[in-house]
Design goal:
The protein has 454 residues and is an alpha/beta fold. It has 2 domains: 202 residues, Rossmann fold (3-Layer(aba) Sandwich); 150 residues, 3-Layer(aba) Sandwich (Rossmann fold), CATH 3.40.50. It contains 17 helices and 14 strands. Helix 5 links the parallel strand 3 and strand 4. It is elongated. The two termini are 41 Å apart. It binds adenosine monophosphate. The site of adenosine monophosphate has 11 residues, from helix 3.
């Protein structure tokens, strides 16, 4: 992808070339078209990802040429340093335009800032407190703002700017584009986003120093139609010596696929719930809470629903289907190994996904080891929950790996919920459907829970 593919005007492309940038960063590739479309944007990105150009470049384009005295773009940022940095970037990217950028922050004399406001600007970058002071003195006019950016929104909330932000927002015209950038998603951020953004495009990229190094990544080659069987086997036996799985976050590409897989897992006795954009907020919250509380073992998620999921001590992420965009893979696997812990990411790769895996490896500059596919039984009903007997079992002709003791996770800690046999770590895997480690029932057919959930 090139900057010229993003629909930016020649003057902006020239300024970008002057800065020496070759290609857009992932956040720029995603955010620039979204901002240009005029939609509200919720972006998860940290400093260092190139996010400033991600919103400044398209906003400069939307502004066109200089007009009037009052700013049409307002960028709120938490600190002087960041505010000054954003303004510097806006001036650099806008050097071939006649647009004016003004910067306002506290701790310095108000006078030059008032003079600047009197002369007029198109883009105003400000810290909230000083901006309110200047508005109250009649020096700043916010009545023409058409685009509002909250940069590092999480930091602004941490610094106690919430009331100032709300006050400023009330001073703006109702008709405007809103962009919100935040490195983290707390409940407060979610609430602010829900209040401020209308039908936002969600954009998220992994931090520069990705967690990829701390995540043990493995892949299995498996036919598409066998993935569900292998996944159930992995829950039972683990992927690479870690023992049976207590919990996993499983990614599918589509909402429908997420629903179907959650049903299939329930059909195989693994407590599961789907989480995706078609689910109500209440259902999503419930699924997440059930997962965090250990009441479900598999949370089957689509890309969009996974944004901002922060689940402590999540040992496993499964790419049931590989994402089309390599950055999404990095983001997905970053759901595990959070806050310095380690984790495992397992990808189930069908023959037609081999190219996607290569793209991912190229992006990460890292190979994902492909392990021999373990033997598994084909016993997971395909369709809606099957209340009849399971289909005939067939054994796959793949090398059988030694059975790992159950009841221990990657760190070798016994799970409190494991059954006595499992806790002893000596129970052989049942030949047919039987008791599953932990509190999950291994009986075929849907549990009461699954019936109500779907
Ligand atoms: P930011 O995350 O916006 O603070 O940007 C972090 C750093 O990346 C800044 O020094 C930018 O100048 C630089 N930068 C932004 N976009 C690109 C790009 N496409 N290629 C190379 N460097 C960039």
């Amino acid at each position: 992808m090139q900057f010229s593919d993003l629909g930016l005007e020649p003057g902006l492309l020239r300024a970008v070339a002057d800065k020496g940038y070759d290609t857009p960063t992932p956040i720029q590739a995603k955010a620039i078209p979204a901002v240009l479309s005029g939609r509200d944007v919720l972006a998860g990105a940290q400093t260092g990802t190139g996010k400033t150009a991600g919103f400044v470049l398209p906003l400069l384009q939307l502004l066109g040429s200089a007009q009037g005295r009052a700013p049409r773009v307002l960028v709120l940022s938490p600190t002087r340093e960041l505010t000054a940095q954003i303004a510097d970037s806006a001036r650099a990217y806008g050097r071939y335009t006649d647009l004016r950028t003004l910067v306002i922050f506290g701790g310095v004399s108000e006078r030059p800032q008032m003079d600047g406001l009197r002369q007029g600007c198109d883009l105003l970058v400000a810290t909230p407190g000083r901006l309110i002071d200047l508005v109250e003195q009649g020096a700043a006019d916010l009545s023409q703002v058409k685009h509002l950016v909250l940069d590092e929104a999480d930091r602004m909330l941490d610094m106690g700017f919430i009331h100032a932000i709300k006050r400023i927002v009330r001073m703006l015209p109702a008709q405007r584009q809103n962009l919100m950038f935040s490195a983290t998603y707390s409940d407060d951020i979610r609430e602010l986003a829900a209040r401020m953004l209308r039908d936002p495009v969600s954009v998220e990229v992994a931090p520069r120093n990705t967690t990829a190094e701390r995540v043990e990544q493995v892949a299995f080659r498996v036919a598409k139609e066998d993935k569900r069987h292998l996944l159930v086997h992995l829950f039972d036996a683990g992927a690479s010596g870690e023992g049976s799985w207590h919990q996993a976050l499983v990614f599918t590409r589509t909402k429908h696929g997420a629903n179907r897989l959650a049903q299939q897992l329930e059909g195989a006795g693994i407590r599961a719930a789907a989480i995706h954009g078609n689910k109500s907020q209440a259902a999503r919250v419930r699924a997440l809470e059930d997962f965090k509380g250990g009441r479900i073992a598999a949370l089957v998620a689509t890309e969009v629903a996974s944004r901002g999921l922060d689940i402590k001590e999540l040992p496993q992420v499964v790419n049931y289907e590989l994402p089309n965009v390599p950055e999404d893979y990095v983001h997905r696997i970053g759901r595990t190994a959070r806050a310095g812990s380690t984790g495992r990411a397992v990808s189930l790769v069908a023959p037609d996904e081999a190219g996607l895996l290569r793209d991912i490896e190229r992006t990460m500059r890292q190979t994902v080891p492909v392990l021999p596919t373990p033997a598994f039984e084909r016993k997971v009903p395909a369709g809606a929950p099957d209340r009849g007997p399971p289909p005939p079992r067939q054994q796959q002709r793949a090398p059988q790996r030694p059975q790992q003791p159950r009841g221990s996770d990657a760190r070798g800690v016994s799970r409190p919920s494991a059954s006595p046999a499992n806790r002893a770590g000596s129970a052989p895997r049942p030949a047919g459907p039987g008791g599953h480690p932990g509190s999950r029932s291994r009986r075929f057919g849907p549990s009461r829970r699954s019936r109500s959930a779907f």
